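Input:
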Amino acid sequence: MKSLFQATDLYQYAVLCDFDGTISEKDVTDTLLEHFGNDTCIQLEKQWQEGMIGSRECMRQQIANMDASLSELDNVLTTIRIDPAFSKFIHLARNMHLNVHIVSDGLDYAIRSILNRYGYDFLPVYANRLLHNQQRGWQLEFPYANEHCLKASGNCKCQHRQKLFGFQKVFYVGDGTSDFCVADKVDLVFAKDKLIDFCQQRGIQYYPIQDFGDVAAILPNLIEEPVENYCLSPA
Ligand SMILES: [Mg+2]
Ligand SMILES: [Zn+2]
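Output:
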């Protein structure tokens, strides 16, 4: 059976993509908490921002404080749009046989439902597991947590990176703090927002992007170029 984690003759390159703020225009968890969260959720967010708790503990408690029926939650999900240029990137990925994985510290059910709406149900998603108790209660589980991850995220992306085997190059597309632990473990980062500053500070090879249109435009030129030749302090 073909493993998604292993390179094949045809699939020599992998692209890991963050979801919230990278593929989706808005952060899904934040959007759901705006609709269904309570004051405790806001307190938890502050504690996370101040570094008192990791994102895993923060989200675990926030999701447990959410009050929504399944259909209410589904309704809000239908309002979340994705980057209009994502289709260009997926087209390229098909033509160039890129092995695309979505690695997210967000909610698997939400991500799948949004991707399904756009016809991208074939993309593998690795995220935290959102569970519904059949009434108005919700719970988050962390099948990809890693005690050794510096970020104490729900889904440790650096661990996911380590599972990839035999690829000539691994690229990463992301925008925020959940991408920090993996950014220095790939060949090249396509970065938005906070991730740009992080890469700059750490001397990590990155390319700043506005959206997936930039990834689709740049990636074909970089793919066969030796990593040493990357000259990435773009003006
Ligand atoms: Mg993000
Ligand atoms: Zn990690």
